[in-house]
Amino acid sequence: MATPRQRLQQQLAAPLPADPQLVLVTDLDGTLLGGSLAWRRRVYGWLQRRREQVLHVFCTGRDLRSIARLLEQDAEHGLVAPHLVIGDVGCTVACGHSLEPVPLAVEPIDRLWVGKPERLLPLLDGVAGLSPQPLSSDRRLAYYYDPEIFAHDLVDELEAHGVDCLFSDNRYLDLLPAGINKGSTLLALLELLDFDRARVVTAGDTLNDLAMFETGLAGVMVGNAEPALMAELPRLPGTYRARASGCEGIVEGLRHFGYGALLEDL
Ligand SMILES: [Mg+2]
């Protein structure tokens, strides 16, 4: 009888490290893609060299197509595919190598999304201060919103249909199946992987990363975090607030959490 981790591995195009010392879960924009180019190159090179010791997970609002484009563009800076991807703000899980969705992780989210677009789209059509994001994602609706114009009383009406409205970075509004976010999907994935939670570190910079910090896993809020996220810090005991931005902030956080030895070849 296969374990959940073995079943997950069967659905991936490349093997996961057998016994990683660290599971590093990074948001992209403003976090792994943030900071100076020199720091980004250093961190990307380190991730490449440490592939067997560091299991790397992207955890992003981007959809799979946008992640594929990014990996192509940023290869010149040394960015390599992670082992796993959590995309669409927690609504998609994919193999980092092939960017193919992982059925074991995605099917439970799919079931929560059945019938939702049909009910929600008519309510969202023509609403002032909303425009659809040009994304090709499943299990989620993504909009730009204008905080000055968008009428927030619509939120209750939308959420009554079994979704969560997630506002982020003062411009993004995501409608996600109720209870699904970066944090819930990360915890479900860790359950499948059956790794020691004490070896997990997350990193992020905007409100859609809050759910990751709320898991209680070790977290790094990078220096360039949005003010609304920073305001949550007092109730996030597992989260370290870095002074440095983006990639440099991730490294600062890893040192804080005791991973200095792993960083010696950075
Ligand atoms: Mg971000």
Outline the fold blueprint.
Blueprint: H1 4-10, E1 22-26, H2 28-32, H3 37-49, E2 54-59, H4 64-73, E3 84-87, E4 92-95, H5 103-113, H6 116-124, E5 130-132, E6 141-145, H7 154-159, E7 163-168, E8 172-177, H8 182-193, E9 200-204, H9 210-213, E10 218-221, H10 227-230, E11 239-241, H11 246-256
This protein binds magnesium ion.
Protein architecture, described:
The strands form 2 sheets. This protein has a 7-stranded mixed β-sheet, with helices on both faces. It has a 4-stranded antiparallel β-sheet with strand order 5-6-8-7. Helix content is 35%, strand content 19%. The protein has helices at residues 4-10, 28-32, 37-49, 64-73, 103-113, 116-124, 154-159, 182-193, 210-213, 227-230, 246-256, and strands at residues 22-26, 54-59, 84-87, 92-95, 130-132, 141-145, 163-168, 172-177, 200-204, 218-221, 239-241. Strand 5 (130-132) and strand 6 form a beta hairpin. The chain is globular, with a radius of gyration of 18 Å. It has 2 domains: 4-12 and 20-109 and 180-263, HAD superfamily/HAD-like (Rossmann fold, 3-Layer(aba) Sandwich), CATH 3.40.50; 112-175, Alpha-Beta Complex (Hypothetical Protein Ta0175, Chain: A, domain 2), CATH 3.90.1070.10. The protein starts with a helix and ends in a 10-residue tail after the last helix. The chain has 11 helices and 11 strands. It has 266 residues and is of the alpha/beta class. Magnesium ion binds at residues 27, 29-31, 204-206.
